[in-house]
Each structure stands twice: as C-alpha cells, then as structure tokens.
Amino acid sequence: MTVRRKRMHLAAHFPGVNNTTVWADPRSKSQIDFSSFEHLARTAERGLFDFFFLAEGLRLREHKGRIHDLDVVGRPESLTVLNALAGVTEHLGLAATVNATFNEPYELARRLATLDHLSGGRAAWNVVTSSDAFTGENFRRGGFLAPADRYTRATEFVDVARKLWDSWTPEGVSRPFAHRGRHFDVAGEFTVPRPPQGHPVVIQAGDSAEGREFAASTADAVFSGWGSGGYPPGRHSTRHGTLEAGRSFYADVKRRLKKYGRSPGDLKIMPGVTVVLGDTAAEAQERAAEIRWQQVSPQNAILALEQIWGVDLSAYDPDGPLPEIDPVADSTITQGRTRRGDTVAVAEKWRALSKEKGLSIRQTVIEAGGRQSFIGTPEAVAAELDAYVQKEAADGFILQPLITAVGLDEFVDRVVPLLQERGAFRTEYQGATLRSHLGLPDPVPSLGA
Amino acid sequence: MTSSHGRGLLHLAAALDQPAVFDAGSHIELARLAERGGLDFVTLDDTFARPGPDALAVLSRVAPATARIGLVPTVTTTHTEPFHVQAAVATLDWVSRGRAGWRIEVSTTEGEARLFGRRHAVTADELWREAGEVAEVAARLWDSWEDDAEIRDLATGRFIDRDKLHHVDFTGTGFSVKGPSIVPRPPQGHPVRVVDATEGHARRTAAQYADVALVRAASPAQAAAVRDQLRQSAAEFGRNPDTLRVLVSLLVDLGDGEHAAEPGHGGGGPRQTVQGPLYRGGPVDLAELIAGWHADGIVDGFHLTPIEPRRDLERLVNGTVALLQHRGLFRTFYPGSTLREHLGLARPANRYAVTGGAS
C-alpha cells in the first residue's frame, strides 16, 4: 500500500538582531534596506515556502548600562514591511511578530485584517508577550504586566481579535461587537470587513508550559526552539534539538489539542532551525565551525561570559582561561534579552567544559553555544529534514538564514529540489492563501458578534 | 509681515480617499495616476470611526508599485502608541526610499474611545496638545540613531558606534518614552509631517511641527490670513517660516466637463459647504484658480480631494496639471527622489549629532 508522503512546511525567518546573524561576512547585506527584505521574500517564494517571518524587538538591548553594540541591530516595523512585500510577492504568507502586551486588540486586529486584504489572504501574526519593565519604558502602559498575566492577556487578546474579524459577516454586513473581560473592555464597530482568510493565521513562539497550552488552545502554528545556532529563538526556548526530544515535544503539544476540541492537523509545529551546506560532509562541518567562530567574536565571547557571571569581565583575555571568581546570581547586567536560566549552574558547566577539553574563553563559549541544526551535503540535509517530519518531530521548519538577504539562496537552489524529488515538499502552490498552504481549516464565522 | 511674497515652486497633492475600498489594486491605480501628473504627494485619510483600511498599510502596499510620489497616510495620535507610530512612519520611509509623510490627526469621539476602552474622549484642545507631544517624541526617536551609527567595524567587532545612538528620555503629560528607536534614522531624516491647521486647536501643533500645513479655505483672503498666522507662529517657535509649506485644501468636483470658465479665479472659485470648501467646474478653470492664488503669493500649493476619485483625479492630471505644466507653472518630471526634495525642504540635521547640541 502506498501512502502519500507527509509534506513539510517551510518558512523563511529574516535574519535576526543577535549574534546568530553573521554581519562580518562580506556577502551580508543591509538589515534595514527594503531590497534585503525583497530579496529574501522573493527567494522564499521561488522556493515555494509557506511564509516569510519577521521577528520583533521593542527596546534595544543594553549591557552594562549601555546599548549593546556587537550584533546586528535596528529593524523596521514588521507589519509595514510586510504590506510592502505583499506588492512584490504573490503567494508567500507574511508573518509579523507583534507583542500582545504593548498593543491594543482593536488597532492590531485592524492592521492584521488590512494586511490580509491587501495581500489576498496571506497574513499571519506571531503572538509574543512581555512582562518586562525595561521594554515597557517605551510605552504608555509601561511594564505593568505581572509575568503570570502574560498569557492570560495574550489569550484574551486573540479572542477579542477574532471577535472583531467575525463581526462582519462573509456577505459584508458589519455588526456591532462588545467584549468585557479581565484585560479588555471594548465595544463598537470594526472598520474592516472579514479578512479573506476569515482569521489571519496565529503563530505562537516559545516552549514553556503556558506557551504550549496557549498554542493548543489558540494557535494555528508553533514556532518552537531548537537548541543550537547560538541562541535559540523564542523567549523561553528549551533544547529539544535531537529527534527524540522533538518527538516528545511534538507529541506533548498535539496531545493538548483534544481538550480544546481540535485535531492534530489544526496546529503545525515548526521549529526554528539553521542549516549549513557543503559539497561534502567534511566541507559542511568546516563551514559550520567557521560560522560559529564568526558568530562568537572575541568581544562577543566576553559578553556571553558577562551575561552568565553577571559582572564586568572586560579585563579577561578571550583566548585565556575562564574566571576563577563565582558568578553573581540575578544580575541585571544585561537588559532586554532572553534570560539564561540558572546562571550559577551554567557557569559551573562552562568551567567543567573548559577544564575537561582545555578550552579558552572564546572556545568554551563556541563549544557551549551548540551547533547549527542541520549540517551536511544538500542530500543529507534533505534526508534529515524529511526524517524529522516523517517521524513526527515536526510539521516543518522555520529556516533562519545566517547571512542577511542572501542566506537562503543556497538552500532554495540546492535543497528544495531534493525535497521535492523525495515527495517531501510541494512542487507548486495549490491555493492562494496562507491557510491553504498550511492545510489549515477555514474558521467558521460565528453567528452573532 | 513674514510672508515671502516672491512665490516659490507650486506644490500639488491629491487625496486618494474612496469610500471603503479594501483591495490594493484601485489604490495603486490612483497613486500611479497622480504620479503620472508629477504631484508632490498623495494622502490617504484614516479614522477608527468609519469603515476603511489602515491607511499606512495601504500606502506601504502602494510604495513598491510607485517610484517617486510622496505617500502620506493619516495616523491618529490619540489611541495609538507613539513608539509604534514613529516606527511605522519611519518604516514607510524605508520601504518607499524616502517618500513617506505622516498626516497627524486626533480621534475626538467617545465612540472611538470605546473601541480601545483605555480612556474617555477628551477635548480637541487636549488631544492636539498630546499630538504635539507625539510629534516631538517621534522627531527625537527618528534622530535617536545618527546617520552614521552603523559602522560594521571588523577590527573591534562592533556593528554600531553606540555613542551615536541616543536615549530620548521624553516625558509628556500622559506618556513617556525612553528610546532609542528600533528603526535606524529614516532616509529623509524626518518623514514629512502634515497637519490640517484649519481649526484653531491644531494650529499651534502645525506651526511647531508641520512641514506642510493644510488649510481648508474658500477665499484667498481666508487662506492668506491663516498662512500669515502660521508663519508668524512658526517663527515664534524658532523655526524659519520658509520651512513650512501651506497648501489650500479643496474638494474638487470636475464633473461639469472640460469647458473653460471665464478667465481669472472669480467665476469658478470654491464655495463653502458642510464638507469643506468645494470647487466645482472644469479642469481648465481649476488651473486658472491654482495659478492665480499661487501667483498672488497666497499659498504654496493645493491639496485636492476629488469627489469622485477615478473620474476627477484623471481630469485633474490630464486637464488641470497638464495645463499648468504647459504654462511652465508645474514640474513635468521629478528632479528629486524624496518627498522632501519635491517640497524643496532640506533634510533636517540630527539634534543629537555632536555639532547639533545636547546628547
């Protein structure tokens, strides 16, 4: 009996504002010029990707009280860029990360509905949350939200947004809406007709227990972490980079769906991954090592150390041994980036690693930072990606190119055709909307607002 | 009086407003038509009170489909986050490569306030005071990255020179913003700020922050009075009044055909209606009016809102503008590429740059 091979979904993440992105490479292009976004989006569409993905940052990171200067920094406002990209692409889904803490449902639902109309049904929203007073200093509301409320606000936020999208009938009749909840008390009429997709696609990023539950109850796709490539994506990533960890994460999230009356196909799990290719396995490994060396510059190595130790270590030699002093717990030396867990334990681990292998500070940071997710020949990478999908460790992947603008070219040219040959990826777009690319059901319009 | 009565270049803009159109195609078509006429910019209005798409989104969609024309969406300062608004306007400037403007507006109704549920409606005076604060913080955030902040210095491993990024530390009446912006300084330095200064509440904010002030006036005398007041007030804020362009806003109904009216701008002049001053007549007559008011040094140009966009914008471009071009009164091509260049406005210096003062 032949069973149709399960096909994967692919998304392209615009290179981030962190040290995963290698700006020192001469091929690296502007992180802000529209031409960079256009190039990556067109490349992704040429590769028949499901969607293009933009992250968000609302406060520049600071370290030792000063703006962090070692990584790519500065980016455009997501939804505005995606509207422009809608004009230079035809099928590609367009996903914006937008914070549910520092926005209001009416305005954001309207902006997402507008993108969905202007792109003919290609909009997606990656819902993130923040309780961070540091980021809050840029907003009217400030850092008011208790950590425990982050997901209750996000869940209610999405709920209100969907009420607004449902407030117009598919026939184009506007009905008044009203919502009174713990976080929002709003009423009136929505100014935009029902979006072409009914509801823009909702993505959830992050692997925490609350995040998983939020995804199961509310999201259409999960952008999960992958323990490699320097700093994993999402704010609460854990490492489940191995196939087994991926399978268990996948099973856990899918299992939660039933409680909400949803079936496994209603939520796509797409870990963020990095890929390094080479003509031979050895060449790929060599390139991967070179990239890790570029990502962790001497200055970045000291910075990574300071983030763990919580004190100024600028006097240390990146090519010398790790500090003998003990780290300071709960330091606020770095603001505006993912917390790194129990830093004292991490410091112990790093010391042990350095001692065991005789590594310098920089070598230790590189070693501890982990490898890229997939390293190998195009054939090997295609086979491995496919295996993750067939063995139910993922429904697809969000690729994070390491070089701005051109970092996806090689994957699209060399790996996508091999995936297609295996029957593991589409050979043409079947539908017009992102929901159709992802095989998601159309939301049923509610009868009353 | 401060008016410089040697007249400068004529500036023309058109509104793309159509009742509740949500697809990209018709907006693009109209913007391209306006661009064919060499207009300085198009505006797209926005309100939470009536059906219609997010205007800044629509003009972002229009940006890659056009090459030269300025793109000016309305964005309210009332229920929005100043930090997001300035980032979105800066991004429109990036995606259009220096063609962004921002028509600053306020949302006065209780109905709009209920959509957000954060606060009740307050007076227009209060809202315009807040709009001024938002304009101020936006300008600071646009300056919060110096133009040469990105250095990509391999030797020291630094991507930026952090001495060229600045906290803005703004504290207003109702909000505060720390900064810097997440968006590097936009191509124009400051995207062009447009304020409808017809009502008294908006006039101070216009005089202090607007690059372009719109005045809905039915007579030359009325327009000249507001322009003089704006220029004087701008000077009191320490601005050079010549950095403020004043355009008369008229509704135009060119449905009466192509026949010319009597010469001069008396016969076909606008009349006051509930919606604002309305010009009704032929495109040739309108060209006469525009040329006349501009020649008399009453205004720097016109912002025209077609009653029927498809019909009237085409007649405006093919009739009125063609005639003005023929008479050498209006550009026949775009010599510059940014909206500031079209308007003859310099790219502003950065307030935080060492030569510019405080950090």
UniProtKB/TrEMBL annotation, chain A:
InterPro entries reported for this sequence: Diverse_substr_monoxygenases (IPR051260), Luciferase-like_dom (IPR011251), Luciferase-like_sf (IPR036661), NTA_MOA (IPR016215)
Domain named Luciferase-like: residues: 27-390
Gene3D superfamilies with a match to the protein in the record: Luciferase-like domain (3.20.20.30)
Coiled-coil ranges from the UniProt annotation: none
Keywords, in A-Z order: Flavoprotein, FMN, Monooxygenase, Oxidoreductase
A Pfam entry, by short name: Bac_luciferase
GO molecular function terms listed in the Swiss-Prot or TrEMBL record: monooxygenase activity
Keyword set includes Flavoprotein: yes
Endpoints of the signal sequence: none
SUPFAM superfamilies according to UniProt: Bacterial luciferase-like
Family according to the record: Belongs to the NtaA/SnaA/DszA monooxygenase family.
Xref: NCBIfam families: FMN_nitrolo (TIGR03860)
Protein name listed in UniProt: NtaA/DmoA family FMN-dependent monooxygenase
Organism, as annotated: Streptomyces longisporus
Automatic annotation (TrEMBL), chain B:
A Pfam family of this chain: Bac_luciferase
Membrane spanning residue stretches: none
SUPFAM superfamilies in the record: Bacterial luciferase-like
Residue ranges constituting the Luciferase-like domain according to the UniProt record: 16-262
Record keywords, A-Z: Flavoprotein, FMN, Monooxygenase, Oxidoreductase
Membrane is among the record's keywords: no
Tagged with keyword Glycoprotein: no
Family stated for the protein in its record: Belongs to the NtaA/SnaA/DszA monooxygenase family.
PANTHER family on file: ALKANESULFONATE MONOOXYGENASE-RELATED, C2H2 FINGER DOMAIN TRANSCRIPTION FACTOR (EUROFUNG)-RELATED
InterPro entries referenced in this protein's UniProt entry, alphabetically: Diverse_substr_monoxygenases, Luciferase-like_dom, Luciferase-like_sf, NTA_MOA
Name the record gives this protein: LLM class flavin-dependent oxidoreductase
Gene3D superfamilies registered for this protein in UniProt: Luciferase-like domain
